[in-house]
Design goal:
Largest sheet: 5 strands, mixed
Radius of gyration: 22 Å
Distance between the termini: 68 Å
CATH architecture of the domain at 52-123: 2-Layer Sandwich
Shape: elongated
CATH topology of the domain at 52-123: Nucleotidyltransferase, domain 5
Helix content: 25-40%
Structural class: alpha/beta
Strand order of the largest sheet: 3-2-1-4-5
Length: about 130
């Protein structure tokens, strides 16, 4: 009679579950102030300090940070937010996160308003 060797993999399931749980928690804690949008994939990964974040989702809703803003008031509220940050910073940075189906005219309007208010603009659209 030949003896057969067994492989006990019970602990492996526990380890994989703990790793999955860890990465799930870390990925949600990474940046909680971001509105989920589908950004196009780029070639380079450039990082900038994010003082003000403007997001446009697939339903063409505007957000400053996580607060939803009416489309008619976005210019005024963005200028006020930039002015508030200019007291502490020389040149605040406005990061625009736009969904892939967001209207590019709205993205360019946010860029123009930000530039005219004296902010640097970083857009996550192509």
């Amino acid at each position: 009679m030949r003896s057969q060797s067994e492989l006990h993999a019970g602990a492996l399931n526990d380890i994989l579950f703990i790793l999955l749980f860890f990465f799930l928690i870390v990925s949600t804690i990474a940046n909680p102030n971001i509105i989920k949008v589908n950004n196009p994939k780029g070639v380079k990964d450039t990082k900038a300090k994010q003082h003000i974040t403007v997001s446009i989702n697939k339903d063409q809703h505007f957000f400053i940070g996580t607060k939803q803003v009416d489309a008619a008031l976005i210019d005024t509220l963005l200028k006020a937010e930039i002015s508030k940050h200019k007291n502490a910073l020389d040149t605040p940075v406005v990061v625009i996160n736009a969904d892939t189906i967001a209207y590019y005219g709205e993205v360019f309007r946010i860029m123009r308003v930000s530039k005219m208010a004296g902010a640097k603009v970083v857009a996550n659209v192509k």
